Amino acid sequence: MKRDAWEQEFRAVWRREERFLRQYECPPKSPLDQKVSELAPEKLIETLRAAFEKAVAVVFDKGSGVVIRENRRAEQQRTYQINAYAAHLQETRRSLRAFSKAADRAGRGSVLLGGAAGIGMGLLGMTLPDVPLVTVLLLKCVYETAESFGFSCKEETERIYALRLIETALSEGAVLRENNQVLEHFAQTGIWHDPITVNLQIKATARRLAESMLYGKALQNIPLAGAVGGAGDFLCLRRVRRYASIKYQKRFLLRRRMEQD
After folding, report:
1. Is 182 exposed, middle or buried (0-12, 13-18, 19+ CB in 10 A)?
2. Which residues contact 255 (CB under 8 A, 6 or more apart)?
3. pTM value?
C-alpha cells in the first residue's frame, strides 16, 4: 500500500535526524583539536561562557525584535500561511516540502554572515568582539527556522526549546542522544519532563557554546592565523541551522498529524 505524503515526509526527516546523530555522536578529532582542549586554560572557557551568557541574556532582555525585525517576521508569517493553505487544499510531498524550503532560504544569510565576520575578526586576532554577533545570528537562524514552520519564539517555553536545541546541536556522544530525546518529549507533549527556567537554560547553552567553540576562539587570538579559527563560526552556525531544520520540521509534521486525527 502506497504511503501518503505525510508519512513519506516524516520518514525522510527521521532519516535526516539519524544521520545527524550518527555523524556527531563520535565526530573525528584532530590531534590539534585535542591539544588545544588540553592546553586552553579553564579561564578561557569561563570567559567565553560568560560572554555568550551575557549576549543571550541581552538579546532576550531587549526582545525578539533584536533577532528578527517585525516586518521580516510578518513576511515569514505570510509565507507560512500561504504554504499552510496550499497544504490544506492538497497535501502532497511538494506542498509539505515548501515549509522546509522556506526555512532553508531564511537561515542561509545568517550562516554566511557569521562565517565572514568570524574570519574577519580572526584576521585581526580578535576573539570576544564577535561573540555578540555570533549569538544573535545563532538565535536568528533558530527563530527564522521556527517561524517558517509556524512556531513563535516569543513564549518562554519556546525560548527554552530554542536554547536547548542549540545546546543539543553542539553536543556529542551519549549526551547528544539524551538531549535529543528531551526535545522529542517536549515536541510530543508540550511539557518539559524536568523543571527548567530560561535563566538556567541560558547558562547551560552558553557553557556548551564555549566548549564547542574553544578551539576556534583560541586560534582567533592569533592575527592572520586566526582566520582559520574564525571559520569555526560558520561551521557552528551551519550545524545548528541543520539541526533546527530537522527538529522544527518534525514538530510541524507531528502537530499537523495531531490536528488532523
Report:
1. middle
2. 150
3. 0.83
